[in-house]
Design a protein that fits this description.
Largest sheet of chain B: none
Structural class of chain B: mainly alpha
Helix content of chain A: 10-25%
CATH superfamily of chain B: MetI-like
Radius of gyration of chain B: 19 Å
Order of helices and strands of chain A: EEEHEEEEHHHEHEHEEHHEEEEEEEEHEE
CATH architecture of the largest domain in chain A: 3-Layer(aba) Sandwich
Strand order of the largest sheet of chain A: 7-8-9-3-10-11
Shape of chain B: globular
CATH superfamily of the largest domain in chain A: P-loop containing nucleotide triphosphate hydrolases
Number of strands of chain B: 0
Structural class of chain A: alpha+beta
CATH topology of chain B: MetI-like fold
Distance between the termini of chain B: 42 Å
Strand content of chain A: 35-45%
Largest interface: A-B, 24 and 17 residues
CATH architecture of chain B: Orthogonal Bundle
CATH topology of the largest domain in chain A: Rossmann fold
Strand content of chain B: under 5%
Number of helices of chain A: 9
Distance between the termini of chain A: 27 Å
Number of domains of chain B: 1
Oligomer: heterodimer
Largest sheet of chain A: 6 strands, mixed
Shape of chain A: globular
Order of helices and strands of chain B: HHHHHHHHHHH
Helix content of chain B: over 70%
Number of domains of chain A: 2
Radius of gyration of chain A: 24 Å
CATH class of chain B: Mainly Alpha
Number of strands of chain A: 21
CATH class of the largest domain in chain A: Alpha Beta
Chain lengths: 364, 221
Amino acid sequence: MTDAILTATFHKQFSGGPEIVAKDLRLGGGITVLFGESGSGKTTILRCLAGLEIPDAGEICFGHEIWFQKSGKIFAPPQRRHIGFVPQDYALFPHLTVTGNVGYGLNDLSAAERAARVAESLRWLGLDGFENRLPQELSGGQQQRVALARAVVRHPKLLLLDEPLAALDTPTRLRLRGELRQLLRQLGIPTILVTHDRFEAFALGDQMVVMADGRNQQSGPVTEVFNRPANLAVAHIAGTETVLPARVLKVADGIVTVAVGDVKLVAVLADFPADATEVHVCIRADDVMLVADALLGASARNRFSATVVAVECDGPLLRVELDCGFPLKALITPQAAAEMKLKPRAAVGVLVKAPQVHLIPFAR
Amino acid sequence: MSGVEWQLVGFSLRMALASLLLILPVGLALAWWLARKEWRGKAVVETLVSLPLVLPPVVTGLVLLQLFGRRGSVGSWLHNTFNLDVVFTWRGVVIALAAMSLPLFVRAARTAFEEVDVKFEQLARTLGAGEWRVFFTITLPLARRGVLAGTLLAFARALGEFGATIMVAGNIPGRTTTLPVAIYQAVENGEDAHAWTLAGVSAVSAFAAVFISEKLQRRRK
């Protein structure tokens, strides 16, 4: 993220709560997912960026504007930040119709212009026909779209969405996930989206910032963060299924050989610290391939013979627990499992590509 | 009812309405301030606002008499600057009624404001609205039932006020005499029929105001 439009370093603590820290937060265009478990401080960060909370100290800059600077006693209130904000429960004004809600932020336009802009955004979101409904007369999905329309109809410079899909039932959430992605793409407004859902992060984000223990831990493209967690906290939140301690045996030409117990693993890793002797090995379950015979397959892979310990359902996929000298988890389709006649105590071959083995050096 | 009685009722209604006009801006500001802000000395102001509810009305009247009399701090200023006299005029009636009914209004409006979720106000701010716009387009409309109920209570209280009124405005027939004062006078003079007619008018208007106020407050979620 070279050309950051928003840079922030601040901390905020509510009485009796943990300190929430944003350190060198740099956000560019596109959609940035602020990812973390509940209580990790992501909503507090978002509300500080919106100007709804005042940080205890630090600085928030957007473009050439200083939104907050403790030392300079600068605080731009939300009404001067020109943002669009969609809270988790949408906070639609209960006494105003859909038109009244969406047009609320356009009061500086003439009545005709305002009506045109509202109509345009309602059409865009497929809400025409609902102009005179009150919020409580709408379904959850419709409410979400009204909240989005109200936020974007002013053409804000920054869009802030707090768990935009969390208040919806599962079928609606899945349907709107793809839709939201498309809408945000069309808008092209820099967006920060808070979520605790991995699938949402994958589906909606270009970049992501992982929050844990009240601070931002890692930033980068979504797939990179998921595949290359910077520390154990991130690996845990990113849901890396296999995380095991290992010893470093050899580092040469970007290829790192480690030992998990007695089993050797090869990882391809740029900028691995030369002095690291102990690491955590991270392997995502969906990067593990199972084959009937361990001797088959291409070179430059980690191959093991393994015993199946357990097979259980994980949504449409099967989660397979293996013993290949160390415990390893794999995620495969039921078809593949049937083909290989996978069942507990069966022998199976395991392949893991070296670039998909990720290493986290022990905290120095 | 006789012409005098109609005049009395009309005068009392006008005075109560005038006191409402005085209360509304002050009371709304005070209620909002108490509901939304934290400041030093808030507890003192809270107590002062509610004091007329528990103080004997004649004591409140005495304090007002002292303040608004020609030698009082406010009264002398009003007299010298605007050539306005308060004590023993209809203005005194309005001031007395306002002071006595303000607490009821502020308490009701404050509760109504506190029941408005700040998330709506915060969202309005993210849509570019300043404090005044937020108040008039979000807070007040969402609190309207409670505020209206408080207005009616204050109005009913003003119609029935006796002690403070008689201290500040006295009993000048046709100029400062309100319904309750007239009822007292009528009983003093042994005009029981007259007293009962006026009492009936008082009871009906008080009943209507409280009935509607209760209804409004109960309809809030």
